[in-house]
Specification:
Layout: E1 24-27, E2 33-36, E3 46-47, E4 54-55, E5 60-63, E6 72-73, E7 78-87, E8 93-101, H1 120-129, H2 142-145, E9 156-160, H3 170-177, H4 179-190, E10 197-203, H5 207-216, E11 223-228, H6 237-245, E12 260-264, H7 265-277, E13 283-289, E14 297-302, H8 307-313, E15 323-326, E16 333-334, E17 348-352, H9 370-374, H10 381-389, H11 393-398, H12 409-413, H13 420-437
Parallel strand pairs: 1-14, 9-10, 9-12, 10-11, 13-17
Antiparallel strand pairs: 2-8, 3-5, 4-7, 5-6, 7-8, 13-14, 15-16, 15-17
């Protein structure tokens, strides 16, 4: 049987052995907690608390700012200390709610539900009000994703368990330790679509997860666990859909246009918590790993917790550590400080003793074609980067520059060490912004 995969891709050193066997440990925050009001794609949330207010764990502190938006809930009990601009993990300044933790962790009353007794609209409202978003990194509000124009055309709900980024093991541990929540969340999602079947896609370098998921779903004829070929970026939305269903989408399409909805493992668990337990998104699993950390670990962390606290909980940075990344090494962001909060999309903090990227000086393209061979978007990265560097928007669009998924495969294999992905990504932002203005 052929491996379930896609065209292109690369095989970077995955580094998962550092943390894959480390069980999830709950970390309670020590200092103030910071909640950026924009932890998702779409309109920022609107604060519904004021300085001096006392809040409980699980209480909504910012409501959705529109349909494509998501509310924010406090992960601790305490007092609202400030509402001010603070740094987020990507280095931008975002209006944030600062809460002084009282250490009591008093909770609001959560109301569990049986999804089988709920109307579809009620289930969707529970997901929306709990602040569930794409927690793999995209941050797209899940309620919006689950509201296609014609729900009857949705054939597949795909759980993205590939976790193809090197070093990150948060989803791996979640699938092993909270198997029933992952499967339960998928069943809730399937209940929203009359014609849909469930697929759990897991790379074949995670045989324990595949076995455990198959055992948990063996009596469910509507769910299939698929073993995917281990290859980056197998967990990308387009590549995952192609690998599991054979259906292809481009930059002008949504997964729903080919009858698919894709959700990350952490998002599916958040959906289960929101509906079955009545709990909002107030915590997540985050991996702290890499060659520059003393004790690679997987933590259950309260949202708003300072990232420096997690690094200390993982034994601190090794002497001489040169780089810290929020997210994966292929698509994450280099951090300028650890004094930033954990947000809904904070899947990992990766610390490295050497900054591999900065030590290389880019040179001229040698027209070897390696970037074309590995590109899952089937474009010509070297030419797109040239057009981007010359600010040629028309040429960039004509050469299908918008089809780039910004996976970074081209930069990874380039023997000239050109920063192809960075140039293309910058031009994509410009083109998309100008399209939006028009």
């Amino acid at each position: 049987m052929p491996k379930l995969t896609f065209k292109g891709g690369i095989h970077p050193f995955d580094g998962k052995e550092l943390a894959k066997d480390k069980e999830i440990v709950e970390i309670k925050p020590q200092g103030d907690l910071v909640f950026p009001i924009s932890q998702h794609i779409g309109a920022p949330a609107k604060p519904v608390v004021a300085v001096g207010d006392h809040v409980l764990r699980g209480q909504m502190i910012a409501e959705a700012g529109g349909f494509v938006s998501s509310p924010i809930h406090s992960s601790v009990s305490g007092t609202v200390k400030a509402i001010e601009s603070r740094l987020n993990p990507t280095g931008g300044r975002v209006n944030s709610i600062v809460i002084e933790n009282d250490g009591q962790y008093e909770e609001v009353e959560f109301t569990p539900h049986d999804y089988k007794t709920l109307e579809k609209s009620e289930t969707l409202d529970l997901i929306a009000n709990a602040g569930v978003v794409g927690m793999g990194g995209a941050g797209f509000p899940t309620r919006v994703k689950l509201s296609p124009k014609d729900p009857s055309t949705v054939d597949y709900i795909i759980v993205n368990g590939a976790e193809c980024e090197p070093y990150i093991t948060a989803d791996y541990r979640r699938m092993l330790e909270d198997t029933e929540k992952v499967v339960g969340g998928l069943r809730i999602l399937l209940s929203l679509f009359d014609n849909a079947k469930g697929i759990i896609g897991i790379e074949d370098n995670k045989p324990e997860c595949i076995q455990k998921m198959r055992e948990a779903t063996k009596d469910d004829q509507n769910i299939e666990v698929m073993a995917l070929k281990t290859k980056y970026p197998q967990g990308g939305e387009r590549t995952l859909i192609y690998a599991t269903t054979g259906r292809a989408i481009n930059s002008s399409m949504l997964p729903a246009d080919v009858g698919c909805i894709v959700d990350n493992v952490e998002t599916v668990v958040a959906t289960y918590n929101a509906v079955a337990l009545g709990r909002p998104v107030i915590e997540r699993i985050t991996t702290v790993s890499g060659s520059g950390i003393n004790t690679p670990s997987n933590f259950k962390v309260y949202l708003g917790c300072n990232q420096a606290e997690l690094v200390e909980a993982a034994g601190g940075l090794k002497e001489g550590t040169e780089k810290v990344i929020s997210g994966g090494p292929m698509m994450g962001f280099a951090m300028i400080t650890l004094d930033t909060p954990i947000t809904k999309t904070s899947s990992s903090i990766l610390c490295f003793d050497k900054d591999e990227v900065s030590k290389y000086e880019p040179s001229a393209c040698i027209n070897c074609g390696r970037c074309v061979e590995v590109c899952p978007g089937r474009v010509i990265p070297a030419r797109l980067a040239d057009l981007a560097e010359h600010h040629d928007e028309a040429g960039f669009e004509a050469m299908e520059g918008l089809e780039c998924c910004e996976c970074g495969c081209c930069s990874f294999v380039c023997p000239a060490h050109r920063q192809l992905k960075q140039s293309i990504a910058s031009m994509r932002k410009v083109v998309l912004a100008n399209k939006k203005k028009k």
